Amino acid sequence: MTVIDDARALQDDLVQLRRTLHRRPEIGLDLPLTQETVLAALEGLPLEISTGTTSTSITGVLRGGQSSERQPQPGRAVLLRGDMDALPVHETTGLDYAADGETMHACGHDLHTTMLVGAARLLCAHRDQLAGDVVFMFQPGEEGYDGAQHMVDDGVLDASGARVEAALALHVTSAFLPAGVFATRRGPIMSAADVLRVTVRGAGGHGSAPHRAKDPIPAACEMVTALQTLVTRRFDVFDPVVVTIGAFHAGTAHNVIPDEATFEATVRSFSVESHARVLAETVRVCEGIAAAHGLDVDAVASELYPVTVNDGDEVAAFGDTVRELHGPERFVEMPNPLTGSEDFSRVLDAVPGTMAFLGTCLPDRDPATAPYNHSPEAAFDDRLLADGAAVYAEWARQRLAAR
Predict the structure, then answer these.
(1) Are 117 and 17 a contacting pair, CB within 8 Å?
(2) What is the CATH number of the domain that holds 243?
(3) Whole domain around residue 312: which residue ranges?
(4) What is residue 71's predicted lDDT score, i.e. its pLDDT?
(5) Does 301 share its domain with 312?
(6) Do residues 337 and 188 lie in contact, with contact meaning Cβ atoms separated by under 8 Å?
(7) What is the pLDDT of residue 359?
(8) Contact indicator for 111, 382 with CB cutoff of 8 Å
(9) What is the pTM of this model?
């Protein structure tokens, strides 16, 4: 039997696991039900299991090519990652296994977790074929909690006793890609994400007499406009940045000048150089405008996630794996990165690897118009779980066999 045959023999079990996870979504770094479910799914496998100290993460180490009687020795290792957390979204898919309440696996992390469990089962069944160790990274807190950094701090990259030499993460999409297509690219694959928080401080007064007050609203509005000009005049169009103001708050009544105005922006960039510059430049613009208006300002640009950068050689190896398993039509190289962000960037900052995508659009939907990840209507075709698990497993086997 091939790895595809073995994976497809697991398909029904994988669907059951995925739907169990989907019914019980959890948010953030503390996922006790999810952790319990995953640990139960891994029970009986020859894995060295550890759990996180600052989160409900799970790390499993499979010692390849070694019998259980031998004391494992540090050797070559690769890492496979699946994130486990959900989003504060009320599900409206109408599926018979939909989640109740205000929490939903709207980004497909339940599929990621399930595919990683499938890969663990496949690789454990063929551990004698592995020329090294495999680290399984079951990660909470991807959605804004920097769970990858928590696991890096806990030592996931060295869990086998030696630093992993390559890493792979698969991410499903409910739209954008045709079902069954794997996609990635060399270099930047997802943007850095930062947040700019600004409070403009003035002096309140009567709306009919603005000269007797220090109105923070016009200055804050000018900052919003200037930040858009910053994007087009300070940064290369071929190394873009995105600044979007998502929240703006000021005032309580039409005839009252408030003491302060606040706004928040998401800031995206696609290179290490632009990432560093945009943090400093956005703050400098706000401070300059405040000074021109004679106002005080607190402007803080905070890094969330760095740019997710794929290694060119690793992308080539991943593409070879997909083509060998599923055929050349199932792999494409993306022309451009995505403007979303990922904390798998923490792993790829430390070791070479690949962040890749798998189209799981439902067959009755058009990927060009289907509800996208994070939508309350986002739905994912779990008939592709075995295909994803097979790619995880075969990539690990081939990557460890390469010299």
Answers:
(1) yes
(2) 3.30.70.360
(3) 3-190+307-401
(4) 45
(5) no
(6) yes
(7) 98
(8) yes
(9) 0.92
Contacts of 189 (CB under 8 A, 6+ apart): 308, 309, 310, 334, 337, 338, 355
pLDDT of residue 75: 79
Strand order in the sheet with 296-305: 241-250, 260-269, 192-201, 296-305
Which of the residue ranges 61-70, 122-131, 320-329, 345-354 would you say has the lowest mean pLDDT?
Answer: 61-70
Question: Which residue type occupies 278?
Answer: V
**Considering all CA atoms of the chain, what is the largest pairwise distance in Å, rounded to the nearest integer?**
85
Q: Residue 199's closest CA among 179, 219, 178? A: 219
When mean pLDDT is compared across 48-57, 256-265, 394-403, the lowest value belongs to 394-403
The encoded tokens of residue 325 equal: 């398993």
Residues 267 and 315 in one domain: no
- Residues 118-158 have pLDDT tens digits of 999 999 999 999 999 999 999 999 999 999 999 999 999 99
What is the model's pLDDT at position 73? 54
Q: Which residues of 19-44 are buried (b: 16+ CB within 10 A; e: fewer)?
A: bbbbbbbbbbbbbeebbebbeebbee
In this structure, the chain runs to a length of: 403
Residues 66, 162, single domain; the answer is yes
CB-side exposure of 58: number of CA atoms within 13 Å? 27
For range 188-201, the mean pLDDT: 97
Question: What's the pLDDT score for residue 70?
Answer: 45
**End-of-domain residue from the set 259, 284, 305:** 305
CATH number at residue 127: 3.40.630.10
Q: What is the b/e burial string over 255-264, where b = at least 16 CB atoms within 10 angstroms of the residue's CB?
A: eebbbbbbbe
Name the packing angle between helices 272-292 and 216-234 (round to 10°): 150
Which secondary-structure segment (H or E) carries 394?
helix 385-401
